[in-house]
Amino acid sequence: MRDKQVIQEVELDKDRMTLGRKVHNDIVIAHAAVSGEHAVLTLMMDGVCLEDQGSTNGTYLNGQRISRCMLEDHDVVTVGKCQFEFHAGPRAHKSVTPAGAGATIATISVRTGPNAGKVLSLDKPVSTLGRPGVQVAAITRQGDAYFFSHVDGQRAPLVNGRPVGKTAQRLADGDAIELAGVNMVFAHTAG
What we know:
The protein contains no helices and 19 strands. A six-stranded antiparallel beta sheet has the order 11-10-19-18-15-16, with no helix packed on it. Strands 2-1-3-4-7 form a five-stranded mixed beta sheet, with no helix packed on it. Strands 6-5-8-9 form a four-stranded antiparallel beta sheet, with no helix packed on it. It has two domains: 71 residues, Tumour Suppressor Smad4; 83 residues, Tumour Suppressor Smad4 (Sandwich), CATH 2.60.200.20. By secondary structure, the chain is mostly beta strands. The N and C termini lie far apart (47 Å).
């Protein structure tokens, strides 16, 4: 929005979307008060994280300057002279079988923490889990195989009690994952 007029609506349709003045960003804001790479929006299991990328004029959430935060429905984000109102729509986690592949979709069952009992379908090419600034991991789907990798945080997450190394680790049915103090279980039976 600009001067309370809606200029554009943007659907957060990727796991990670960049926002800034330069044309390579997912959301381009052509205004001098906006940095070239101003902020990043990351879809997490429990919502959307907004992170300022060291912008000159800052990123504001409901009038307060932030470096990183989780967005809630109807939050107002200010970047330069533009304002964005965040609308948390339903997050669809559909189990889709690729045509002719006979593949099954893996899931992550959350065992502890505020999301205990939730089950996340890993139906996207990359699913991001964790807490920004604490510990973040990605699960990448390649055909019928799933690979776990450490993305952010000083300590590596654990798979079956062992720290994940620098290379992606293939997950197996029943693997126990500990990420940002939360215990989860990976479930996948090949079709």
